[in-house]
Amino acid sequence: MADRPIRVLVAKPGLDGHDRGAKVVARALRDAGMEVIYTGIRQTPEMIAEAALQEDVDVVGLSILSGAHRDLFPRIVAQLKQKQLDDVLLVCGGIIPDDDIPAVKQMGFAGVFGPGTSTQDIAAFIREQIAQKRGARAVIRLRSGQA
Amino acid sequence: MNPEAVAQLRAGNPRVVARAISAVERGGAEAREIIAAIFRHTGRAHIIGVTGAPGTGKSTLVNEFAKHYRQRGQRVGIVAVDPTSPFSGGAILGDRLRMQDLSGDSGVFIRSMATRGAFGGLAAATSDAVKVLDAAGFEIVLVETVGAGQNEVEIAANAHTTIVVEAPGMGDDIQAIKAGIMEIADVLIVNKADHDEVSATIAALEMNLNLKPKAENDWRPPVLKTIATTGEGVADAVAWIGKHRAYLEANNLMQARERARFRAELEMVVQREMMARLLRGVNGTKIERLVEQIAARKMDVYQAAETLIG
Fold this sequence. Notes:
The complex is a heterodimer of chains A (147) and B (310).
Chain A: E1 7-13, H1 20-31, E2 35-43, H2 45-55, E3 59-64, H3 69-82, E4 89-94, H4 101-107, E5 109-113, H5 119-143
Parallel strand pairs in A: 1-2, 1-3, 3-4, 4-5
Helix pairs in contact in A: 1-5, 2-3
Chain B: H1 3-10, H2 14-26, H3 29-38, E1 46-52, H4 58-71, E2 76-82, E3 91-93, E4 108-114, H5 126-135, E5 140-144, H6 155-158, E6 161-166, H7 173-177, E7 187-190, H8 198-210, E8 223-225, H9 234-250, H10 253-280, H11 284-295, H12 301-309
């Protein structure tokens, strides 16, 4: 069966209103052939997880510039887990100090993209990661005889 | 789809509903299996189409409508369609942004859909996504089309009640009498009614409606004013949607609309399947060779099609 376009939720958790970066990334992912569900600013962890669930996305991309990532990201990850969305690829960007990046990756974020990252690199990273996930799922289906 | 999954879908399990919509969007054998399993559980929802030009306030109105239905205790499913880029195949699905009042309410399910190459204002799988929501027990299903031009009228064949949203200053009385989108409205809404020129817009729409020859027992679409951002006029609009449904039921038109919808769907599926089957038997190089011959003016497109169909 043909693969569907990669579906990405782009959201801004927390209270900062600087959404230019999120919009630039959303637009770039659109140009990379992805379906981007853009939910905008001031998203609570619950709202993000609910949208990810209903939209059945492959990727959740978070943009945060307020410095609240250490508080909000674990809550978002917990909400996603609670909804059994463990398989969703997590990426983030915005202002994340270098010292925090290991902790953010530890939480489950596969990609952390700070200022100056090329949007093409973000798209390529997502495409590669999703291809791997889909490949792994296809192998599991083959082995269990469901393909 | 196994019976347990069908039961979970019918109970409105959001994960199962979401995955079923993804499957019907993807098409193929799994999609057909899902529709076969759920189809007999459909037919309960009031399907309400919301269409109109980009930026007239469709998403904000859908948000307001959903809030009203929730106050009455009805469960609301929403399918919001945005266009797919013809160049990249990607899309920005931004309707959810205007529906944030509805988050955290398990009685509401919102799904964004990209057109994925379909014309007419909907995606090819929109009607199947509506069936999934209908079977999942959503009593009201709101379908928001892409920002529609004059000719995106497919929603009328997919909904029981079609709402066309206008904004003041979008055109003169000639625009109002043109064929196409203005003809499919069961309810006409002039949104952004706090802007200038609202009375001129309403007058143009009313004039157009008055020019239509009256048949007995005909439905005359009301022309309503709303300000979606404040909720003004929304209660009245919801009341008119209810009146339209009552009118359809009183005149046995629900079934008539349904039959028209299924006839259109059947034709579409036959077209799609015949095309797929035909092309399965033809290799790509044969088509390329024909294209070459057409480009060289040795053959016209009708002749080339004839050699393909045989």
